[in-house]
Amino acid sequence: MEKIKIQQEKNEVLVSFNEKFYKEDAINQAIADFKQACDIKKNENGLLMKPKGNIDIDTLGYEFYNYVLGLMKNK
Amino acid sequence: MTDELSMQGNLEINEKEGVVLVSVNPKIYPLDVVLSSAYMFTNNNYVLVDGDPSEEIIVELRPKEKKDVEKVGREFNNELINYANYTVQAIKNQGLREAILNRVLKTSDVSSREEDVSYLETEAKPWKFDPEEIAKPWNDKHGEDKDTTRKE
To answer: How far apart are CA A41 and CA A15, in angstroms?
Structure first.
């Protein structure tokens, strides 16, 4: 169960979701909300996140996961 | 299974990584209950949900600060029971809640007050039958001229 792959040398995080649990509209909303903090590209493997400023790359993907869960719960 | 991994009931504990995987049976705990419990843990943990919603739900809990991960997993089990109980009680009380809400909405509706008007009118009318003269003011019955008990 490796949903978050941290690529330290590239300063990138690859995040993938189990779509049976995480709704696409919540993920899209989270992408829009995280745009200020990082560049996010969608590809066939998931989301490629690249932090813009002084953001901890080790926790970025996990924070994103928590945020999506919060959006789903509060809808 | 390596030395870092240990199984405790439905918990798979990885002390080295500081992570615990909680296996949840969706036939016992519905997905809503699992997601609500998981959300409660997002304050102090990083939470990932994976697996199959019809077979086995796996919740990964990774404390944000160093903590006993087994304890975190066990607290999650407690939270599942807490939310499951809340959901059952909410279903049980649904009829009662609806009845209370209907009653509140009904009493705030002006047209429904008509049945109470007759009661209010009878209360507001002066009493016709008053042999003890309860409705009569005290001064009329025991005014200065009539009060003989308090003379000094």
So the answer is: 10
- Residue B115 domain-assigned (yes or no): no
Number of domains in chain B: 1
Is B141 part of a structural domain of the chain?
no
Host domain of residue B32: 5-95
Extract the tokens encoding B149: 């008990």
The distance from CA B152 to its chain's CA centroid, rounded to whole angstroms, is 66
B46, B59, B65, B83: best to mutate for the A interface, most A CBs within 10 A = B46
* Inside any domain, residue B59: yes
Decide if A37 contacts A55 (C-beta within 8 A).
yes
Which residue on chain B is closest to A65 by alpha carbon? B48
pTM attached to this predicted model: 0.74
Would you state the pLDDT for residue B152? 46
pLDDT digits (tens, 9 = 90+) for B71-81: 999 999 999 99
pLDDT in tens, B105-121: 888 766 655 555 555 55
Contacts of residue B15, Cβ cutoff 8 Å, sequence gap at least 6: B4, B6, B69
Tell me whether A22 touches chain B (CB under 8 Å). yes
User: Using the beta-carbon criterion (under 8 Å), do A65 and B47 form an inter-chain contact?
Assistant: yes
Asked if A43 and A13 touch (Cβ cutoff 8 Å), the reply is no
